[in-house]
Amino acid sequence: xxxxxxxxxxxxxxxxxxxxxxxxxxxxxxxxxxxxxxxxxxxxxxxxxxxxxxxxxxxxxxxxxxxxxxxxxxxxxxxxxxxxxxxxxxxxxxxxxxxxxxxxxxxxxxxxxxxxxxxxxxxxxxxxxxxxxxxxxxxxxxxxxxxxxxxxxxxxxxxxxxxxxxxxxxxxxxxxxxxxxxxxxxxxxxxxxxxxxxxxxxxxxxxxxxxxxxxxxxxxxxxxxxxxxx
Length: 230
Prior knowledge:
With 230 residues, the protein is an alpha+beta fold. It contains five helices and twelve strands. The strands form three sheets. Strands 3-5-4-6-7 form a five-stranded mixed barrel.
């Protein structure tokens, strides 16, 4: 079960997903969010990892990587074409319906490319029990270019690792649901913010409960997986 604060904090954390993300590339160092150095971050010996959902949020990253407070994690702003960030068909141990990737022709979604060390990747993986870590190829992923890259780095990335939900995409009226808090262009899917999506889930699974009580029940159960189509 996730480590959480009081009752109010449990609900705020669930409803706040996927949390605030910077509008630019950044470096997460412990609980500090830093601007990359003028010459760009050091990416040597680091493999790209597609970061979206909570893994693109400084608040969530600080929590996940708390055991390595002195190890910087560079995250480069990027755009991923022909994909969208949608809700996964599960409720997380902290009570939110989290994200996964969905092929979506014509959509360009805002994401980050993270460059974790092996130890940082291990900690991230430990927080992703509902996800498979695997390599994605044939991507159309373009870095924003707001920080300089080394001579061996490319602005276009065609392959990266990513955490993808074991449970697939949650469907509403037969279609995946995009996360409204994640910016995208040419979005063809309907989108909802977390409170509205959680309310739809609650109405199906526990119509007798308030939304707050439903979140607490999910946290007490360590999450819910998989979720049915809505």
